[in-house]
Amino acid sequence: MSLTPNDVDKAETRGLYGDGDGLYLAVAKGGSKSWIYRYQMDGRRRDLGLGGYPAVSLAQARIRRDEARKLVRLEGIDPLVVRHRQKAAAAAQSEIAAEREQRAASTFKVVATAYIDQQAPAWSNRKHAQQWTNTLDKHAYPLIGETPVHELSTEDVLSVLSPIWTEKTETAKRVQGRIERILDYAITTKLREDSNPARWRGHLDVILPKPSKVHRVVHQRALPYAKAPKLAADLLEVNTPAGRALLLTLLCATRTGETLEAAWSEIDFERGEWRIPAIRMKAGKEHRIPLSEAATAVLRLQESVRRDDWVFAGQKRGHFLSNMAMNNVLKRTGWLEQTTVHGLRSTFRDWAGEKTSYPERMAEVALAHQLTDKVQAAYFRADLLEQRRGMMNEWAAFLEFP
User: Fold this and answer.
1) How many domains does the chain have?
2) What is the pLDDT of residues 258-303, one digit of tens each?
3) In a shared domain, residues 59 and 198
């Protein structure tokens, strides 16, 4: 006998209640109810779920039963196979839609931020990530920042580079390289196809003139070494953390970041060494600096005002001095027109080459320069720490450090 709506509503005992033509009401333990269409296919009994009750009424269940029964009896098609195919097609469509949605949301700025965040821990200079962000924020984001990476074309990249290529060539080349790497990252993460419109070699290099043809390299101002003792004397009068940082930079011929990001854990007063870990070095190799008596004195003075692990702590706790701190000292003392902070490394190099008999390679090691001669570099691996100690003490003496 066929079921009535009242039968369905009152059924509470666990079991199957037939309605006819393969339709059953299944009551589970606990009283939940669902509809099943039971049929034979290739000699096997199959059960097709038609939905739960009361969401699917008796009348609706019969309609669904009739549709499935038609597939079995008239067309010889298994409705379970049809359902599996429909589910697979729906899942594929959902996946395609999700991928499209992700691609649409993966704008150049979003992908660039993700790339910078992933790479920042491996960059030796802690300011490097901010430099990437600043250049992209100024030159790229206003034009292509909201464009999905899979839509970026050569024309889009040129819209960023062309206006600054001849006027700010060095900056433009840096921006080009950064866009290229970000789009390589997008390709690797399958956010765009295997085509990079920012690629230089074999692509942009046939459109844009070579940087060397449109840009003359201007070296940073370097103080003649004869004037270095006067600068040292003026810095001794400054007596601030920034002034001492600049004085240490002059004495040790270090780069700006190497000085400002120095931690007390790197300083070994007992051995008279400053060990800068590889992660902080431009060449990715540990650099040992023999501390002259003058450099040690500067560090001892700074230690007397120690606030945290940074040697040159900034005003905000847990931060080191700003990149502009030493530059501002040069400005206040009237030396900025004659030299830059980085230029002081050239001052030391000129002094070592012209006023001493130390081997050229020793001065290069002091500056943490990579040897350009690959054969020489392969055999020359010692850092000549003790020999350099004498050189750095002579340099401090030349600066007339008291």
Assistant:
1) 3
2) 999 999 999 999 999 999 998 888 777 899 999 999 999 999 999 9
3) no
161 located within any domain: yes
Query: What are the contacts of 194-202 at 24+ separation with CB within 8 A?
Result: 197/152, 197/153, 197/154, 197/156, 197/157, 198/157, 200/176
Q: What is the mean pLDDT of the chain?
A: 88
Task: Tell whether 51 and 133 lie within a shared domain.
Answer: no
* CATH assignment at residue 345: 1.10.443.10
Same domain membership, residue 231 and residue 199: no
Using the 3D structure, point to which of 185, 214, 243 is the last residue of a domain: 214
What's residue 375's pLDDT? 44
Please indicate, yes or no, if residue 219 is contained in any of the structural domains.
no
Domain boundary, last residue among 214, 237, 266: 214
Give the tens place of pLDDT for each residue, 109-148: 999 999 999 998 887 666 788 889 999 999 999 999 999 9
Residue 180: give the domain boundaries: 108-214
Full-model pTM: 0.55
The enclosing domain of 21 has a CATH number of 3.30.160.390
Banded model confidence at residue 379, pLDDT cuts 50, 70, 90: very low
Q: Are residues 194 and 320 in the same domain?
A: no
